[in-house]
Design brief:
By secondary structure, this protein is an alpha/beta fold. The chain has 50 helices and 31 strands. Strands 15-16-14-17-21-11-22 form a seven-stranded parallel beta sheet. Strand 27 and strand 28 form a beta hairpin.
Amino acid sequence: MTKWTNEQKEAINARGSNLLVSAAAGSGKTTVMVERIIKFLVEDMIDIDRMLVVTFTEAAAGEMKERISQAINKGIEEGKEKEAYFRKQLMLLNRASISTLHSFCLKIIRENFYYLGLDPDFRIGDEGEVQILKQEAIEEVLEEEYRKLDKDFVQLVEGFGDNREDRNLERLILNIYDFIQSRPHPLDWLKEKVEEFDTDVDRFKKSSWIVGLKDYIKIELLKAKDYVNDALKIANMENGPAKYIEALKADTDNIEKLMAALEDLDLFNEEIKGIEYKSLARTGKKDGVDEKLQDKVKDLRNKYKKIIDHIKKDIFGKDIDEYVAEVRKLYPMMKYLHELVASFSEAFSQRKRERGILDYNDLEHYALQVLEDEGIRKYISNRYDYIFVDEYQDINLVQETIIKKIKKDANLFLVGDVKQSIYRFRLADPSLFVEKYENYSTEENSLNRRIDLAKNFRSRDEIIEGVNFIFKNIMSKAFGEIDYDERAYLYKGAEYEKIDDPTIELNILSLNEDKEENQNEEMEDDFDSLEKMELEAAFVANRIKDLIGRKTYNPKTGEYKKIEYRDIVVLLRTVRDWASVYMDTFIKNGIPAYLDDKSGYFDSVEIMIFMDLLRVIDNRRRDRSLISTMRSPIGGFTMDELARIRLAGKKGSYFDAVNRYMEEKDDDLQKKLKDFMEKISYWANEARYLKLDEFIWKLLIETGYYYYVGAMPGGNKRQANMRILVERAKKFENMSQEGLFGFVRFVDRLQEIGVDMGTAKTLGEKDNVVRIMSIHNSKGLEFPIVIVGGLGKGFNLEDTKDAIVLHKDFGLGPRFVDVENRAYCDSLPRISIRDKIRLETLSEEMRILYVAFTRAMDKLILVGTVDDIEKECGRWSTGPKFYNLVSGKNFLDWICSSLYIHGDGEKLRNLYGLTINENIFKNTENPTWTIEVLKRTELDIRADSEKVSQNEYMDRLINFKRDEASEFAHLVRDRLDWNYKYEEGSKIPSKIGVTDIRDFSRQDIDRLNIKIPSMLKLPKLSDRAKTFTGAEVGTIVHFVMQHIDLDKVDTEEAILEQIEDMVAKGFISREEAQVVDVKKIRAFFESPIGERMLASPAVHREVPFVLHKRADQVIEGIENIDEKILIQGIIDCYFEEDDHLILLDYKTDFISSDNIEELADKYRKQIEIYKEALEKIKEKEVKESFIYSFNQGKEVKVETGEVRPLTSS
């Protein structure tokens, strides 16, 4: 018999109240809810169909029905006098309202279709079908708008579209449409928010945007205050820079004054404009000051100053009148945008009605429309004596409104945990739960009552303690939307026996690499990210192998058991990219694994090949699909055969070449082609008469393709994917009469608009595999061993970068667009809303981390990667301060900032050597955490040791000798011992850039070959708030140096005038011009090398070249390969002097004055290539070569010799 806690008993037995059950992770909330329903059935004698039970998923509803059914059957077996009653309940159970809210809405709509004017045979549209209708509707609306060409529409396109197409505007309309579906009356809400742009100064000051702005400024000031307070702590330390205290106290006074003035923005504006920074007193080693402490204080103070400067310049750089003027200018565009969304909504609805389909948003809004009829509302409300809502934290306002419509005074039972609200992307609104959490009373007889279930029956003590420690330090009302206090803590509910190591593991993998300033950031980020994934995956694979066979304890059975693969789950914030790397690594390490992914169906090789066959049957002139099918196992043509066919008809399509070959040739290939094309014709004829699903299944069997994919690795899953395709075709034919032609175009359209489906699920509960899944998919599940990976991956804050940001309370936040001047900047609504969205997004990330931690039963292992552990420890050293949390870039920042002040965090403190917070949390008994920091060298050593063991095994396989050779030995040797004799040459790239040669000492050939050029952004409306990377600044300076008139560089004013002219002509933007340091440009022309250049009779700038060299002249260690490499580059400048050439290269790298000579060593190889190319082009000697550093204002001579071969690593 279940032993209930007092709180659980209260939740089960309480009557006469609306109950909110705030149930912590692992507290048995679903069990409590089911028990309460059973009590109503058994003790209160309330029929099961008098209860409305709303669950989050159909699976949860099915499980709940099963539990209730078991209780009813038990009642039938045990209760003689109640047997008839229980038999009645068993009958009523089939029609009881135990379902998702969408299913409940569907029931309301089906009963009242006439009220809505719907076809009674309507159906729920498939996601792909709905997305296609959306795309068709938006294209129709925009086409009509282009026909009308209204001036406000033109402004909207200019301001929020792309330069060459309107994809951005399409996305904007669709995003707004989707966003407003969480409001009870979407278009009315949008219109109300748009009308707020038609404002004046007085109304603007009272608007929600100003409230949001004040909240934003308050948060920024709190961050600034924390920075200064920590700086003061360090200054007061032994050997701290005590002389800085006076200036820091003045900073504290500044912040206090600003906080006090914040309620009146006019007063605040005056105060912040008067802020001045007191200079720091001179101090240093002579005063006994520790240099690290001094640098830390300076760093913290600079961050404080940056915040104040940002508020002063970026927010109060304009007065309120200017902001109001911008908002009013935006009003016509926003008003027209509302009309576009309304037009789209109407066009989309019309298309759905024509097809007789509804989508999930329709279910909610139509149900709400029905319930707005008072008679129908009362009728439905009277059906239910009690309403139960599971996972209440994930509800939205429309769903809440529906429930309010049918509730009675005291018949609600709401259960959930706001700390597990992780569906913001589905427009869930956790504030609905929080509002009740804060307002419902804990008193027994209250009408609106809250009961907290805090005991965790899932996890062992160490996990509970670890979760509580982390989240009491990082989660708060301001940041996380709920205070993690005693009410929110997890409390021990299960008894666990000892295991070898019960602590929570935190494994930090450190690459310990500094990035160079001028590398391609976008490309390097891709490589770095891939490297991090591979390192983590390899580490996790080793950790799993180490865990297998060890003991784990199950408190439910009270027994130990050996750990198997099925006991382990790997959780990732996102499975995109990361999961496939983990999967590949696990397979290489012999670890059986299963990836729970909801995408990738159309990218699976078996579906791609078969869809190409269907495309060819539909239209054999589709060359790509024709070649794919011929090359596939279905066609069976070799690459040589495909080439021979093309050579027979070099002009025209490939299909024409096939026909020509069949007409003109008479050989085996011609017969093979003829047979293949006859089969295609036969199948095309059959497709006209057979049902689509029958035809596809017949095709799979006749070609043998179904059995072929079954024999491939993962064959069961591949065959299941093929069966899904057959089912998909059947569904399509039921909703359309377009046959194969329509189905092929339907799939093409799905792929075109980016709609995908998950691959087949072939995993059984007892399959002994490691699960890889997203944290979202793990919600509601539990596992003995949980490994959380990717903790160093940055948070996704893309929502804050949209041209128009959206918020449920503050409405629309568009950027201000000045179409005439081709520029834009942040409007005040955008500033206000953007930070609100950022905080809410980070709060959700925090809740996602909570969900990940609380899946673990017996062991929790955390893994994350950083670039440089010592540098990161410096950021974490101030502990979980508000500014550290709000500025956190990833989960590791939050975890490690907290652990820095934990007793078990000594390893982190030792790495940095500085602790600001003296209040280190001490464990009362045993350690809770084990922290391991593994640097790149240690990881490489581990990998090398594994390679040794693998190599030994391979050696045994390679040198394996049988006593007797088989009769097929010569065939095996002929086929498997063959090696391509130009193997080494195949790896050599055909063309490389000069930069690649400079970097080649740290890149192998394979990596060089996969270097993909980054996409270049087309110039768009300039961004006044844009900041430039070091590489971008270098490009801008090089452009200026290329185009500047050398006859007009005598003064800074003359140089500035030329730069202004470049802006006027549109060569560079205003923002780009602002990063060019005119003083440094003038300093160059005053330098010795600059003066020599000006005195030259011929100066040449930005000279492109391509140099042809043998590969063995460039790469050391390759021999007997007659391969050539094209080396491509651009020479910054060369000039003539006394019939010789002088070579000059500019650099904008940051470099200290002490290391100026390092430039010559760093770029010597590059300069040698330039010199060789220039001498071959001009047939003149390059007498001298120089590098000029704009950063230091100095030149350095580069001594060059012959171009030396470079060592490949």
